[in-house]
Amino acid sequence: MTSATLSDTSPFARIGGATTVDRLVDAFYDNMETLPEAQAIRAMHAQDLGPTRAILKVYLAEWLGGPREYSAQKGHPRLRMRHMHLSIGPQERDAWLLCMSQALATTVPDVEMREHLYQNLAKLADWMRNDPDNAHDKGHR
User: Is residue 7 part of a domain?
Assistant: First the structure.
């Protein structure tokens, strides 16, 4: 996928807008509820996933180039800061990515776009790690 292709239309529009983002997030959390590999990250969340689903839908829509509702409601995402109270290492990252990969596979039929999104989400998930071996933090201690 060329950068020209991506700049022509936002990923948000290319995948089908809010409808697809809603389906993606619902599939992601359904995977978190059912995949044995995701039990540890499911345990990090409240019993009622409704509010968490709603926040991720708004965040992902903006992250994909859609409406800037997340920033209007919550300000800068500050994702690492908002998750610092949780222990996020390679296992948690991988479980999150497994849930997201399967959700992408069932909601984004465009293989090229799906792979592009997965690669960027994998970078984001790795950056969220707050374990001592996170290369992003080396040299900042």
Answer: no
pTM equals 0.86
Residue 138 pLDDT grade (very low, low, confident, very high; cuts 50, 70, 90): low
Instruction: Compute CA distances 56 → 22, 29, 79, 134, whole Å.
Output: 9, 10, 11, 24
Question: Does 62 reside within a domain?
Answer: yes
Which range marks the domain in which residue 45 is found?
16-127
Alpha-carbon gap, residue 98 to 36, rounded angstroms: 11
Q: How many domains are there within the chain? A: 1
- In the chain, the largest separation of any two C-alpha atoms, in whole Å, equals 43
pLDDT at 81: 58
Structure-block tokens of residue 84: 């610092």
141 inside domain: no
The pair of structure tokens assigned to 94 is: 């991988």
> What pLDDT, in 10s, does the model give residues 93-125?
999 999 999 999 999 999 999 999 999 999 999
Q: Which residues contact 36 (CB under 8 A, 6 or more apart)?
A: none
Closest CA to 86 of 118, 125, 33: 125
- Output the CA angle 65-66-69, nearest 5 degrees: 120
